[in-house]
Specification:
- The complex is a heterodimer.
- By secondary structure, chain A is an alpha/beta fold.
- Chain B is an alpha/beta fold.
- Chain B has eight helices and five strands.
- The chains are: A alpha/beta, B alpha/beta.
- At the A-B interface, strand 7 and strand 8 of A face helix 1 and helix 5 of B.
């Protein structure tokens, strides 16, 4: 623990800390461009110069390890002059185009030039001009503005695990580019936009759209995957303009996936903004709320309780699911399910469907087994943690499922499900490795659980957890990786078949065979809707996607950014998403729609507002009360041993960009999809 | 300088190291400890350049990346950093004229002017006949025999306008003169022969 003096203040810092960190500890602000807490140290911008006693010249504080007894000055005349000098050099080639630069108003260079630079320029020569680089549909480049901090290069290499970005040339001619100007093939690529301290890398879809000071900022939660990344939604008027990450060390640190950031333009397209009724001509016609409710009520009256079913989608907030569940409980129907993909997860043991290790816990794991999942696609930010774990400790990682590049080397165990039996029996070499490990963890994706033999897979996983001592007093290495944001909340509140109830497969079967007459789809689109043709379908949701197309009545709901809602991420961490805009047209918040409808059929639900609903929901599911916290789940028995079917193990998701109603409606996501496809076809041609 | 301007437009479809190159590669890689093969990247780039008429095609960069288990971008970074590596085809005779202070004081401008007069090329260009390329470089480290013109791997020293002209004519006829000082100096001894230590005899080594 070195002790040093910064501007006369004594500070103790941890071993291995830098002088810059020590200065911050002492409350001194150090300007910087290249230094970033989560990236390796480059020390090439020289903005962080400080004075050290007995040093002949100022030192780069970011690259200097703090030493015992150092005396640092950050306020001396020399430091001030050094900063001015560095800033002057940086501005030699930086264009004065702030008025047309998208970074304006949130630019590190702008701010620090104000704070630490000269008041005027002495430079009369021509500035360097650099050609633009193509980096894909998300990143707009104005490379003349680049100050060569190499944050983007370090991020893509170290965190995202792709080596496409680099700096070519040298000296004044250095240019940041991707290898032969290919698209950055990463699901985290757009984070370089946040990292860029100047306007060299800016957001292409957001180009020239808004200025930061015009936006209303709302702290919310991302629902594009089940990780629950903390985001900030920036809105202007009633339009969501952009999504930025918010710092949360336990979840996403400060990264978000490209889908979380850019699927939002889908919120403007294909929206359901009024109720629709299917007419005699077989087409959907706009209707009033009253007509829509009347039609549903009339149909419900004719339907027996055990012929009604409800399916909740993947991005539905807890409140809406709770309202629908309460309604169906009142109607007396046991047929409800929130597991659209048919994952064989039981709601009985909470530990059996959670990511028990927690995301932060990944850092401690010393052996990792991934089954039936491609975490790079299903939870890209979490995948970056696994990668970091690998980089720190060369952790052995094995992967069972469709082979894929996960950005770190894995021992691929093939995609044969029978390997699972060997693993569970402890015969497999990797199982032996796990047995020896202190903190082994297994990550099971939906690819292994939505199979017909999912129960047997669960039983084997339980066995594996027991034999490798994966669960003990201070470690739980059993993890289920969801990719549906609503899933855990649904399971927590028991949005699953009641006694004698049918699951999703049963409901679809029943609908095709006439055992189910009435199906309420709450934002459920990832279904084989062709099997619902015979039944009367109510679709409540926000996009005219698959579910709405097969519906007899469409009730326009609010998308996640347009309502306050509770989401529980795959760790079991309840978090609140906040409203950033209002739903379009006649669309209403989902819980309110269900509450209003319940009154129409004289089954009035017992809550009149969101607060009362939440009170009731929390009374039913106490864990929801611990917002932003993970309550460790108790280990128990789960799974039912049985025979494994021979099909190969797939990943939970096959593609990244278009996976939900919002991202399917997004033009940006469609562009990304075709860009990656084009890149792949180029590679195939080579 | 975008990527299109630093690499050649016409790229060969494939690249393979020759047998001699393979031998050199083996030697170059063996210099570094296991797991540090990437250190040999410059040697491999040079070997590739030597076998491929003094320039490195993209396919060679990719081949080197594969061999050294490096990212292609990292190899390209190295290749684009050093002026020694050409990413575009150059003439059969690749001229590197030193223009740093000692050479400049001793008349490197004349050398450059001669090349311009004779071949009509400036730094970074290739002559119309395709035989010569010129690059003005920084110190070649032979200041004592300034000015220097490097032709491929060889130094020609003590040049002036006339001797440069003669050198270029000889190269045009594919009859390169002997390397070293065109003024006939031995190594870096003084012009006009030794001025000191005249009496000292060379010691004869025994055995």
């Amino acid at each position: 623990m070195p002790k040093l003096t910064v501007d006369g203040i004594e500070v103790d810092v941890e071993d291995g800390a830098t002088v810059l960190q020590a200065c911050e500890e002492a409350g001194a602000e150090i300007p910087r461009f290249c230094y970033h807490e989560r990236l390796s140290i480059a020390g090439n911008c020289r903005m962080c110069l400080v004075d050290m006693e007995r040093a002949p010249k100022p030192i780069a504080s970011c690259a200097m390890p703090a030493g015992e007894g150092m005396v640092i000055s950050t306020k001396s005349e020399r430091v001030k002059k050094a900063r001015e000098g560095v800033m002057e050099f940086l501005l030699v080639n930086h264009p004065l185009d702030c008025p047309i630069c998208d970074q304006g108003g949130e630019c590190d260079l702008q701010d620090q030039a104000m704070g630490y630079g000269h008041d005027a320029s002495r430079y009369a020569e021509n500035k360097r001009a650099v050609s633009e680089k193509y980096m894909g549909p998300l990143i707009k480049t104005v490379m003349t503005r680049c100050i060569h901090c190499t944050r983007c290069v370090r991020f893509s290499t170290e965190v995202a695990g792709v080596t496409d970005l680099g700096a070519i040339g040298r000296g004044e001619n250095v240019e940041i580019t991707t290898y032969l100007e290919k698209t950055i093939a990463s699901e985290l690529s757009a984070n370089v936009i946040d990292l860029c301290p100047v306007g060299a890398l800016t957001s292409r879809p957001y180009a020239f759209v808004a200025r930061p000071w015009e936006l209303i900022k709302v702290e919310s939660i991302d629902v594009m995957d089940a990780m629950g990344a903390n985001i900030r939604i920036d809105a202007r008027g009633n339009q969501v303009m952009r999504v930025l990450p918010r710092l949360n060390e336990d979840i996403n640190e400060e990264w978000i996936s490209d889908k979380a950031r850019y699927a939002i333009d889908g919120l403007r397209r294909q929206r359901l903004d009024k109720p629709y009724l299917r007419g005699k001509d077989g087409r959907l016609h706009p209707a009033s709320w009253d007509d829509a409710f009347t039609a549903i009520a009339a149909r419900l009256k004719k339907t027996k309780a055990d012929k009604m079913a409800a399916i909740a989608g993947d991005q539905i907030d807890g409140e809406a699911m709770f309202a629908l569940k309460s309604l169906f409980d009142k109607l007396g129907s046991p047929h409800m399910d929130c597991r659209q993909d048919g994952a064989k997860l039981s709601a009985k043991t909470r530990a059996s469907y959670l990511f028990n290790t927690t995301i932060a816990g990944i850092d401690e794991a010393d052996t990792i087994l991934i089954i039936g999942s491609n975490p790079r696609i299903e939870a890209p930010v979490m995948n970056a943690r696994i990668r970091r774990n690998y980089l720190h400790g060369r952790t052995p990682i094995a992967h069972l499922g469709t082979a894929a590049d996960l950005t770190y080397p894995v021992e691929h165990l093939g995609d044969d499900i029978s390997v699972l039996e060997q693993l569970a029996a402890g015969k497999h070499t990797f199982a032996k490795l796990m047995k020896k490990a202190k903190k082994p963890m297994v990550i099971i994706g939906m690819g292994a659980l939505r199979r017909a033999d999912g129960q047997a897979v669960m039983a084997l996983m339980h066995q594996l957890a027991e034999t490798t001592n994966m669960v003990n007093k201070d470690w739980n290495g059993f993890n289920v990786l969801h990719h549906a944001a609503a899933r855990v909340a649904g399971l927590d509140m028991g949005f699953v078949p009641g006694k004698g109830g049918k699951d999703v497969a049963g409901i679809l079967d029943g609908a095709a065979k006439g055992a189910i007459d009435f199906v309420w789809l709450l934002g459920a689109d990832e279904l084989d809707t062709s099997r619902l043709e015979q039944a009367f379908v109510v679709y409540q949701g926000h996009h005219g996607d698959k579910g709405a197309q097969c519906a007899d009545v469409v009730l326009p709901g609010a998308a996640w950014a347009e309502k306050d809602g509770l989401y529980v991420n795959f760790e079991g961490r309840p978090q609140m998403a906040r409203r950033a805009a209002f739903p379009p047209g006649d669309a209403r918040e989902d819980w309110a729609i269900i509450r209003a409808f319940s009154e129409r059929i004289n089954k009035t639900l017992s809550f009149d507002n969101l607060a009362e609903l939440r009170e009731e929901m929390v009374a039913g599911v106490p864990v929801f009360a611990n917002l932003d916290e993970v309550v460790p789940a108790k280990w128990g028995k789960f799974g039912k041993s049985g025979k494994l079917k021979g099909e190969p193990v797939e990943a939970g998701l096959a593609t990244f960009y278009m996976t939900c109603a919002i991202s399917r409606a997004s033009e940006t996501m469609a562009e990304c999809y075709s860009a990656t496809k084009a890149d792949k076809s180029v590679m195939a041609a080579e | 300088m975008s990527i299109q301007t630093i690499i050649a437009e016409d790229q060969p479809d494939s690249f393979a190291f020759t047998r001699e190159s393979e031998k050199e590669i083996k030697k170059a890689i063996s210099k570094y400890p296991e797991g540090r093969q990437a250190s040999a990247v410059k040697s491999l780039l040079y070997i590739a350049q030597k076998q491929n008429d003094n320039w490195i095609p993209v396919k060679a960069i990719e081949e080197i990346a594969k061999r050294l288990d490096m990212a292609e971008m990292r190899v390209l970074e190295v290749a684009s950093f050093y002026s020694m590596f050409n990413l575009k085809p150059v003439g059969k005779y690749y001229l590197q004229a030193c223009g740093t202070t000692p050479c400049m004081l001793r008349g490197s401008d004349d050398v450059m002017r001669c090349i311009k007069d004779k071949l009509d090329i400036s730094s970074g260009e290739t002559s119309a006949c395709g035989k010569f390329s010129l690059l003005e470089v920084e110190c070649l480290g032979a200041c004592v025999n300034a000015p220097i013109l490097q032709v491929n791997d060889d130094f020609y020293e003590d040049l002036d306008y006339q001797s440069t002209k003669a050198l270029l004519e000889a190269l045009e006829a594919d009859a390169p003169p002997p390397v070293g000082s065109v003024a006939g100096r031995q190594g870096s001894e003084a012009e006009g022969g030794a001025t000191t230590l005249k009496t000292a005899k060379r010691s004869k080594k025994k055995g």
